[in-house]
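Dear Dr. H.,

I hope your travels went smoothly. While you were away I took the liberty of generating a structure for the chain from your last submission, since the lab meeting agenda had it listed for discussion. I wanted you to have the full record in hand beforehand rather than looking at slides cold. The sequence, exactly as received, is reproduced here:
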Amino acid sequence: MSGNRGCLANSLLFLVIVFIPVLGHIIETIMVFEDDHSPAGAILWLIVIWAIPFVGPFLYLLFGQRGPRRVMFGQPSYATYQQPYQQQQRF
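The corresponding predicted structure, in token form, is as follows:
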């Protein structure tokens, strides 16, 4: 019975150490291409993200994104939403 535990532990270890970070790197790569970086800047950020496994994605999230995101998942952000101009009534 103890032989099966090793297999499960190895599978969970693979999931945590390999699969989840690779999935995060793929998501960050998509984020780099969606931001308006120059081609050289995009290549540089991709090198940083993929060459420095655990620190690179955090560096991009902290320093690489440009300005506030206005639309995420097709929804406008409430933080950047401005009320339409309304005329004030004078009495």
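Two observations you may find useful: Residues 2-34 form the longest helix (33 residues). The chain is about 60% helix and 5% strand.

With kind regards,
E. W.
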